[in-house]
């Protein structure tokens, strides 16, 4: 972009914000940045400046191109020449005013003369007192030799006049006070020191000068001038356009020094003072990130920060030296909050401009004011504050040269000293969910729980996301799996890490969703992993995102949106698959193959380490069935446990369980699992399967749900049959299931709701209590015509109006006008039935979780048969006791 166009955009922005309105008023003044106190040369007869009134200077308006091309001078030189001429003209005007005042004093004792007579008298005096040319030349030569400027005759006459008795007496009188009645003040109106004759004026900061200096900082990420105007910059040029300067009595924000400390091995601090508070209403924003690449988290309302300094990958002693960053401390107004809170443009466009104006103290009464706090962190000085080493971040080079951003939290030795006689501490790898960065918060449940029990904790940004390089491949064993293997090798080189043997740290893995999938992939390919606890994970993505060839539209779109918003670098084929599925409801064979290769799949068969699996009863992305598939592959692994809890990718609504209690339960069980199989501190739990029902009661079993003897040979719930017959139209969205209640959009679109255009079949109740744990089996006789390839089914709890598990099951159909039959297992559920239960099966033709706008036609449901699986292997433990001991 050319300089002219750049200036035009910034200048236009300033005028649009109101700071350029002085150009259109009669009281404005155009002048250069007064931070330059050097004396400019005098203005010759060809000057571009002319006096228009006593306090105004007008400049010739010449195109920028003329200054830049005709004279072949730089933009900065051109601006400097204009500034020099303006300053010289100002000096000349000041001398003229001094002469005028002298004449007025002299006239007080002299006869009144006409203006023409005074002018003639002054011209005659000038001729008599003007020195010969030789004297002027001599004076100039003498000045050159001594390095000082020779005073002009006019200045000498002015000094002589100042020494006259009358002038001296007049100067001793007290000056009349000046008052300021306008925010915009003419030059000289705030002059208060009239005793220092010839003393240089204090530097003045103009509105536009300060504004553009701040804008320079915002627009130039490499800027570090902290708001100081740069000579020859845009501010000088736009300044000459004629904006007023603001009153010198502008509001300023005085901020106390910052504070830095170490808490549990993590650097923390306050941007302002020693106690982070919201008392003064300040807003805090990171302006310059950590100088060496550390990771900074800032509380926008209190100014509290936590900081992971950067350490070289090859350094086992952690970080060292000094790292700096800066935070903008602003006190906003209601107007500022309103405009920065506007949708879309508020944060991205308006906020940076407002912050620049606040730093420049422009319109502080309207916009508020701000100051920059530069913070310095001396890591070496902080090392000795606690016995725990300092947590840090670094890059680990993977097998193909990709840099993986990695965070290392050392164990809190003072809380849980190592007692097994081995040097160092065990390590937990905690993987993040998709579109989430590796945890940097020491208060993260996994991070804090394990560190307090004497584990190092490692987190990381997966390949293709956030600070890591490469391209995201959805937990591919060939990519993300090998990345974690490299992290394991790196951890083995760090101080404070316990090893089983060389290059083999004593370690376990935890995490949910994407962080659960990576555990399957890593443990299947790297035998250095000692235990895993994957939560909310999957076996194959086609089974999860494309069950029975029905594309899970809503959650696929949510996942893609999350990756786009976080600017992840994704395998382009993933985009194509989601777009094809969302628009046409189908995936191509190559897209299915890509999903098949992303995640564990049958590689789970090779996992022999202790494995804790937990899956959500209301998970509508990776349903309960995915955990059953993974469990079935681990038939030969003796140390496996499965938990079903009310949570996951979904909403645990009242009447579906106790989501809060279950979250604590799963965390506690995860910690116990690592205490058993990584630290060898507690015995193994004999229960291999536990679940919660819709009342929040926890059930335990010593038999796996994949075992032959888990289910009752004859279900305790009698089979329900229905043969009334009903024809349903197939129209997208109309009368179908979803979006679900209560949950926020867009997640509610992945949940089911009671359908209106449906076949509703009341299910037969048991004679006593019955645990329904597993997949309802449905046989449907039907016929129909249309473009639809699926109808849908769900179990509804009429007592609450909720879909059990919020889960909708696609049922493949063939609508060719002939009689057809489909026999299918729906998605698994966990529900304790009684003789008074009120459940019904609904069959319908459209659902927002699988929204497909190409489906039309009709279907005639002739008869339905429903069988619910029950088990007698469970023991009711009542509501989850909290907290559970570890």
Automatic annotation (TrEMBL):
Q: Where is the composition biased (Low complexity)?
A: 37-51
Task: List residues of the Xaa-Pro dipeptidyl-peptidase C-terminal domain.
Answer: 671-883
- What one GO molecular function would you report for this record? dipeptidyl-peptidase activity
Q: Which InterPro entries match?
A: AB_hydrolase_fold, Xaa-Pro-like_dom, Xaa-Pro_dipept_C
**Comp. bias (Basic and acidic residues):** 90-100
Instruction: Region Disordered: list its residue ranges.
Output: 33-75, 90-157
Q: Which UniProt keywords apply?
A: Hydrolase
What residue spans carry the Polar residues bias annotation?
A: 131-143
Name this polypeptide is given: X-Pro dipeptidyl-peptidase (S15 family)
Say which species the protein is native to.
Mycolicibacterium chubuense
């Amino acid at each position: 972009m050319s300089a002219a166009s750049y200036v035009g955009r910034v200048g236009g922005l300033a005028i649009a914000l109101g700071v350029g309105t002085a150009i259109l008023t009669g009281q404005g003044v155009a002048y250069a940045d007064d931070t330059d106190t050097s004396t400019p040369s005098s203005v010759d007869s060809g000057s571009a400046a002319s006096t228009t009134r006593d306090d105004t200077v007008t400049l010739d308006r010449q195109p920028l191109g003329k200054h830049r091309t005709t004279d072949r001078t730089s933009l900065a030189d051109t601006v400097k020449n204009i500034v020099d001429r303006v300053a010289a003209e100002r000096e000349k005007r000041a001398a003229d005013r001094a002469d005028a005042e002298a004449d007025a004093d002299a006239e007080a004792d002299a006869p009144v003369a006409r203006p023409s007579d005074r002018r003639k008298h002054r011209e005659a005096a000038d001729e008599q007192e003007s020195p010969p040319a030789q004297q002027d030349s001599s004076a100039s030569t003498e000045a050159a030799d001594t390095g000082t400027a020779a005073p002009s005759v006019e200045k000498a006459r002015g000094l002589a006049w100042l020494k006259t008795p009358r002038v001296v007496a007049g100067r001793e009188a007290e000056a009349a006070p000046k008052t300021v009645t306008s925010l915009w003040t003419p030059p000289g109106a705030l002059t208060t020191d009239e005793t220092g004759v010839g003393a240089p004026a204090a530097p003045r900061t103009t509105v536009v000068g300060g504004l553009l200096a701040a804008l320079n900082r915002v627009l130039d990420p490499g800027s570090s001038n902290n708001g100081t105007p740069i000579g020859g910059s845009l501010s000088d040029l736009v300044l000459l356009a004629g904006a007023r300067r603001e009153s010198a009595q502008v509001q300023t924000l005085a901020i106390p020094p910052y504070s830095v400390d170490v808490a549990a091995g993590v650097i923390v601090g306050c941007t302002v003072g020693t106690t982070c508070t919201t008392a003064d209403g300040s807003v805090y924003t990171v302006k310059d990130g950590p100088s060496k690449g550390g990771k900074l988290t800032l509380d926008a309302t209190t100014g509290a920060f936590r900081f992971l300094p950067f350490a070289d990958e090859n350094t086992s002693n952690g970080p060292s030296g000094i790292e700096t960053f800066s935070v903008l401390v602003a006190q906003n107004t209601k107007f500022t909050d309103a405009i920065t809170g506007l949708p879309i443009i508020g944060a991205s466009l308006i906020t940076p401009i407002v912050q620049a104006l606040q730093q420049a103290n422009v319109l502080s009464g309207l916009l508020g004011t701000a100051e920059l706090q530069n913070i310095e962190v001396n890591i070496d000085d902080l090392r000795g504050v606690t016995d725990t080493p300092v947590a840090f971040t670094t890059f680990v080079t993977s097998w193909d040269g990709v840099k993986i951003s990695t965070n290392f939290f050392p164990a809190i030795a003072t809380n849980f000293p190592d007692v097994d006689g081995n040097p160092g501490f065990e390590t937990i790898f905690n993987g993040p969910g998709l579109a989430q960065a590796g945890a940097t918060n020491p208060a993260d449940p996994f991070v804090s729980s394990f560190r307090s029990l004497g584990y190092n904790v490692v987190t990381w940004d997966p390949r293709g996301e956030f600070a890591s390089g490469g391209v995201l491949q959805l937990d591919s064993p060939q990519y993300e799996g090998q990345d974690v293997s490299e992290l394991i090798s790196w951890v083995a080189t760090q101080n404070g890490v316990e090893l089983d043997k060389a290059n083999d740290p004593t370690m376990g893995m935890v995490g949910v969703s994407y962080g659960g999938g990576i555990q399957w992939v890593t443990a299947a390919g790297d035998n250095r992993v000692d235990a895993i606890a994957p939560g909310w994970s999957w076996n194959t993505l086609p089974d999860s995102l494309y069950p029975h060839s029905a594309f899970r539209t809503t959650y696929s779109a949510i996942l893609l949106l999350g990756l786009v918003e976080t600017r992840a670098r994704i395998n382009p084929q993933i985009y194509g698959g989601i777009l094809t599925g969302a628009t046409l409801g189908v995936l191509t064979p190559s897209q299915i193959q890509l999903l098949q290769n992303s995640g564990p799949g049958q590689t789970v068969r090779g996992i022999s380490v202790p494995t804790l699996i937990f899956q959500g009863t209301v998970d509508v992305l990776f349903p309960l069935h995915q955990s059953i598939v993974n469990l079935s592959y681990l038939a030969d692994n003796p140390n496996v446990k499965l938990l079903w809890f009310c949570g996951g990718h979904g909403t645990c609504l009242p009447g579906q369980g106790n989501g809060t209690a279950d979250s604590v339960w799963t965390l506690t069980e995860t910690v116990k699992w690592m205490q058993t199989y990584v630290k060898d501190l507690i015995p193994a739990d004999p229960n291999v399967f536990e679940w919660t029902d819709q009342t929040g009661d926890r059930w335990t079993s010593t038999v796996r749900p994949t075992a032959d003897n888990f289910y009752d040979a004859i279900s305790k719930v009698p089979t329900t049959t229905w043969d009334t017959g009903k024809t349903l139209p197939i129209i997208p969205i109309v009368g179908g299931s979803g979006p679900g209640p209560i949950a926020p959009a867009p997640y509610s679109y992945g949940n089911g709701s009671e359908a209106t255009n449906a076949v509703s079949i009341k299910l037969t109740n048991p004679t006593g209590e019955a645990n329904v744990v597993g997949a309802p089996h449905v046989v449907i006789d039907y016929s129909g015509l249309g473009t639809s390839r699926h109808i849908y089914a769900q179990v509804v709890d009429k007592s609450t109006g909720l879909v059990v598990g919020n889960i909708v099951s696609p049922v493949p159909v063939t609508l060719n006008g002939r009689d057809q039959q489909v026999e299918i297992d729906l998605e698994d559920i966990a529900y304790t039935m009684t003789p008074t239960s009120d459940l019904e099966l609904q069959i319908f033709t459209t659902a927002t979780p699988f929204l497909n706008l190409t489906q039309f036609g009709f279907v005639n449901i002739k008869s339905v048969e429903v069988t619910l699986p029950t088990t007698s292997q469970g023991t009711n433990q009542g509501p989850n006791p909290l907290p559970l001991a570890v």
